Structure formats: C-alpha cells, structure tokens
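#lab-general

N.A. 3:47 PM
ok so I finally got the sequence cleaned up, no stray characters, all 142 residues accounted for. can someone with queue access submit it? mine expired

B.Y. 3:52 PM
send it over

N.A. 3:53 PM
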Amino acid sequence: MTNVTAASSLSTQGTQLNSSGTSMTTAASASLGQNQFLQLMMDQLEHQDPTSPSDPSQYLSELAQFSSLEQMNNVATSTTSGATDTANTQAIALIGHNVTYTDASGAGQSGTVSKVQFTSSGPTLTIGSSSGIPLTSVTEAS
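B.Y. 4:20 PM
back already:
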C-alpha cells in the first residue's frame, strides 16, 4: 500500500490513490481540486493501518490550508479579471475624446481617440493617424 502524506505532492506529481489503495499516475491532473482532495482524504482514512490510526487534527489542518489556498486563488483571479475589465471600460470611454499621450520616443502628443483595440497586453488606442498606443501612455483626457 502507498501512503501519501501531503496534498502538495499530489498537485505536482499527479499521483492519486485508487479504490484499492495503490498509487496511480494521472497525466491530465495538473492541480488538485477540492473534491479530489476530499476523496483522497477519505481513501487515506479507509486504508490506514488500524494498529496506528492517523491523527484527525492533521486532516482538519490540511483541509483548512487547502480551503485557504483555494480562496486566495479565487481572489487573485477576480482581481485580475476586474483590472482588465476596468482598463477596457476606460479605453472605450475615451472614444471621441481629445487626449494627450506620450509616444514611443517620449514626446507629448495629442489627438482624438477614434478606435480601441483589445490585445493580450491591454487595450490600445488609435489617436489621429497613430495606432497601437497603449492606454497607459495617456496622460490627460478632455
């Protein structure tokens, strides 16, 4: 029988216990979800040595750490998504407005925003005849 002591080893190695208590490798499992964690914990409890049972407080501690990590990931995901949405909204709001921006050479330029494009690095603006100007280059809007 294979004993697995830490959930973190499962997420990096992709090892899980099957119903008979032997280890199996899952190539597709890159992370450990809450359901998989609880299933693993139940498998460990079912297949523990009756002469030396595990300390239940250890399982509660692991579950609390796992829940805390999951909540931190949820907050990080929503924060990133919120920042992207805010930048996109700000860029769209500038269409038709006169803005001042710093160009690639560091010189100040101004013009009217006529178009917004959304790229993987953030929204870019078309100002006058210049395109691909990052929203972060805008210094003033009127």
